[in-house]
Amino acid sequence: MNPITTGTVKYCIVGTGFAGTCALWHLVQRLTDPDRLPSLPPSAIAITTVEQGPVNGPGYPYAQDNVQLAHRCNNEASTMGIHGNDFVDWMVESKPWLIRDHPEVVLETHPGIELGEWRPDNGEFYPRALFGMYLGQRFQEAVARARAHGIEVQQYTRHEAVDGCATKEGFSVSLRELDTDREFILDGFDRVLLSTGHWQAAAADGLSGHGGYIASPYPPVALKAAVADWIRSRGTRGERPCVFVQGMGPSGIDAIMTLCSDGEFTYTHDGHVASYQPATRTGEEPLHVVAGSRSGFFSPVRGPLADYELHHLTEESLAAIRRDHQGSLKVERILELLDKDLLRATGGAVGWNDVKNPRYRSAGEKLASDLRDSYTGNPVYTVLLKARRMRFYNQLEPGDKSVYDRLLDTHFIRTAVPMPAANAEKLLALMDAGILTTVRQGYDAPRPEVGDDGDFLITYRSDDGGRSTLRADGMVRATSQDFGMERHPSPFVQNLLRRGEIVPHEEGGYVTGGIALDARGGYRVMKRMGDVCVPSPHLAAYGSPVRFWQNEHNYAGAFVKAAEWVADEWLEAAAAAGSESAADNPGLVSNEIGG
Question: What pTM was estimated for this model as a whole?
Answer without folding.
Answer: 0.89
